[in-house]
Write a structure and sequence with these properties.
By secondary structure, the chain is mainly alpha-helical. 43% of the residues lie in helices and 0% in strands. The chain is built from five helices and no strands. Helix 1 packs antiparallel against helix 4. The longest helix has 14 residues. 18% of the residues are buried. About 4% of the residues have low confidence. The structure holds heme C. Heme C binds next to helix 4.
């Protein structure tokens, strides 16, 4: 399957909404690990606390990624599966993290993004 096809399938499968996947408040340490993963791997190119009007980084701000109607670039309904694939395979300018982060780390990272 080509990456384009995988992305299309993931976008179409947007059934998992962020609301069902958000971590419960007692999982603070889980979110702290997610925050550290974000800082190590993503923060150089993505803001998470600044909205797009105030972000000056190379990649789009991931602020409220799962709370907004649409994702900043793809304009798809926010969907966890798509974000997993974006992280694993990267993009035109974004590096792929499939060899650097395992599935559990990617999940923790996305839980952190969904908490913002
Ligand atoms: C070297 C800079 C860079 C790094 C590091 C990086 N990204 Fe990106 N990211 C980008 C750029 C630039 C885009 C948009 C263009 C593209 O796809 O290359 C993007 C796009 C995205 C998108 C798609 C947004 C949309 O609306 O479709 C998501 C989600 C994303 N990045 C998440 C992450 C996460 C999570 C990490 C950390 C694991 C990360 N990025 C690391 C540069 C980066």
């Amino acid at each position: 399957m080509s990456l384009r096809l995988i992305l299309a399938v993931a976008l179409a499968a947007g059934s998992l909404s962020a609301a069902d996947t958000k971590s419960p408040p007692w999982e603070t340490s889980h979110l702290v690990i997610g925050r550290d993963l974000f800082r190590e791997n993503c923060a150089v190119c993505h803001d998470i606390d600044k909205d797009k009007m105030h972000s000056r980084k190379l990649g789009p701000s991931l602020n409220h990624l799962f709370k907004n109607e649409k994702m900043p670039l793809s304009h798809a309904k926010p969907n966890r599966q798509y974000v997993v694939i974006r992280i694993k395979f990267g993009g035109a300018l974004m590096p792929a993290f499939g060899k650097r982060l395992d599935d559990s780390e990617i999940n923790t990272l996305i839980d952190y993004i969904a908490s913002k």
